[in-house]
Design brief:
Helices cover 40% and strands 16% of the residues. By secondary structure, the chain is α/β, with parallel strands linked by helices.
């Protein structure tokens, strides 16, 4: 990003977390959710070098992909408006009016939304799909779903250098493994890295890490792992236990967590600590990946679950 005046990394404070029960490790959250109203969390790091590359290579338009509640779609639309790019969003599924808060924000920030069926969306990485994009939209710079590509890994690899204390583990929620891969590369086998899968049946994340890290570095990394049993039923699936935990964390710490990514991540850390997964007195730093915009679209569902109606 050639102009970072809109983003203030100094606001990413490191905050110690108080849990509902005492645990035998120290847990901190690196508050990247505070660096910008819209381009925050891991999205800043993922977009940084993508936007720089697009500008240096004279692309006027950025095209990307996502679901109806995608944090990446939301952040890319905002970045396009701020940094002077046209943006196109290929959205999974059918259009539903009125637009939800995520897509409404994207549209208001100038993103042109195009909807494709779920079956066609699964082909988004095929040569046939890329040919369709070229024919329909012309010469656009394509950023993959979730923003995860080699330029994103390069950006995310800068995160560890911004953590101002000594620690034993760095932990992030993982949907595509882009941020996780960046952390692994950035730490260069120095600390332990743990990913918390937020999707059910996400064993493919392990392959994604191996792919991204091998493309970025010739070194073999053995300091990472992924836990796969804290998805709460699947992507964007939630239950009462998770929501109560999220509310407790907010009351105790004044830290907002979204129920799709950061809520599941911090719950996993809490539960693993109670089960003695970590050695006693270790220091853990969790990455707040933002995503708070997604709360608005799930508010009704969250209220129903907490009220016991569903």
């Amino acid at each position: 990003m050639n102009s970072e005046k809109e983003i203030d990394l100094s606001k990413a404070v490191l905050q110690k977390i108080i849990f509902p029960e005492k645990i035998n490790v120290d847990v901190f959250v690196k508050r990247f959710d505070l660096i910008h109203p819209f381009i925050n969390g891991n999205k800043y790091f993922k977009l940084k070098y993508n936007l720089q590359y697009a500008k240096e290579n004279n692309f006027n338009t950025i095209l990307t992909f996502g679901g109806a509640y995608s944090n990446h779609i939301h952040a890319t639309a905002a970045a396009g408006k701020i940094f002077g790019f046209e943006t196109i969003g290929i959205i999974r599924g059918e259009e539903h009016l009125p637009l939800n808060p995520t897509l409404s924000f994207a549209s208001k920030n100038g993103m042109k939304l195009f909807y494709v069926s779920r079956s066609d969306y699964r082909k988004k990485n095929s040569e046939e799909f890329y040919a369709w994009i070229k024919k329909k939209f012309g010469d656009v710079f394509i950023v993959p779903e979730g923003g995860s590509n080699q330029l994103a890994i390069k950006g995310a690899s800068e995160i560890p250098s911004l953590i101002e204390i000594d620690y034993d583990y760095v932990i992030t929620a993982s949907g595509t493994a882009g941020t996780l891969s960046g952390l692994i590369v950035g730490l260069n086998n120095y600390k332990k890295v743990l990913g918390v899968a937020v999707l059910k049946g996400a064993e493919f994340l392990n392959k994604n890490v191996e792919f991204f890290t091998s493309k970025t570095s010739k070194q073999k990394f053995n300091n990472w792992s992924i836990v796969h049993n804290y998805h709460f039923g699947g992507y964007a699936k939630i239950n009462r236990e998770l929501l109560i935990f999220i509310n407790q964390i907010e009351e105790l710490n004044e830290v907002k967590l979204d129920p799709i990514y950061t809520g599941k991540m911090l719950y996993a850390v809490y539960d693993l600590a109670r089960k003695n997964y970590f050695e006693k007195n270790k220091t853990i730093v969790c990455i707040h990946t933002g995503g708070l915009q997604g709360i608005e679209g799930m508010k009704d569902k969250m209220n129903f679950i907490l009220s016991g109606k569903i």
